[in-house]
């Protein structure tokens, strides 16, 4: 571990960010920090719909403050809220750090988060998640150093891939 001081795991809810981050942190002997609130997938609506434009702006500012604080820490592996890439400031910060986009397809995502269906009624939850993918996938890509696809559930291989990239 020469220069990597922080690792950020970004991606959609249900990708397995927390499991990967915990595994990597354990192997490195680093601290795991869970900053993933999974707001939109948990409520089944975009944050803007629930908390309004100003509420979403405040939420994004809060995410930026959390992210900025984490930049003062070393030897940490951090999961982020899936909406973190909605802010250009956050995308720029993540792109300057060691960030990994953990991809997940909508069908696998639906299966993994089936136990945590939205609190508010959503007629087409798959469509809602597909829309989040359309809005955010490219933003995740531009914010990350590299991507891993978690659909295969190969946690050990993914942990090793991250470790190989940090050496």
Q: What is the topological layout?
A:
Blueprint: E1 6-10, H1 17-28, E2 31-35, H2 39-43, H3 47-70, E3 76-80, H4 88-96, E4 98-103, H5 106-112, H6 125-143, E5 146-149, H7 155-166
Parallel strand pairs: 1-3, 1-4, 2-3, 4-5
Features:
five-stranded parallel sheet, Rossmann fold, 15% strand, 167 residues, alpha/beta
Summarize the structure.
The chain has 167 residues and is an alpha/beta fold.
Structural class: alpha/beta
Fourth-tier CATH superfamily name: P-loop containing nucleotide triphosphate hydrolases
According to DSSP, the number of beta strands is 5
The percent range for strand residues is 5-15%
Distance between the termini: 5 Å
What's the rounded overall pLDDT mean? 85
Q: Strands across the major sheet, in which order?
A: 2-3-1-4-5
Architecture per CATH nomenclature, i.e. the level-2 architecture: 3-Layer(aba) Sandwich
Counting DSSP H or I runs of 4 or more residues, the number of helices is: 7
Helix content: 40-55%
Q: Using the coordinates above, name the CATH class.
A: Alpha Beta
Which regions contain 5 or more consecutive residues with pLDDT less than 50? Answer: none
CATH-defined topology: Rossmann fold
The number of distinct structural domains comes to: 1
Biggest sheet features: 5 strands, parallel
Q: Give the CA-based shape.
A: globular
As a whole number of angstroms, the C-alpha radius of gyration is: 15 Å
Order of helices and strands: EHEHHEHEHHEH
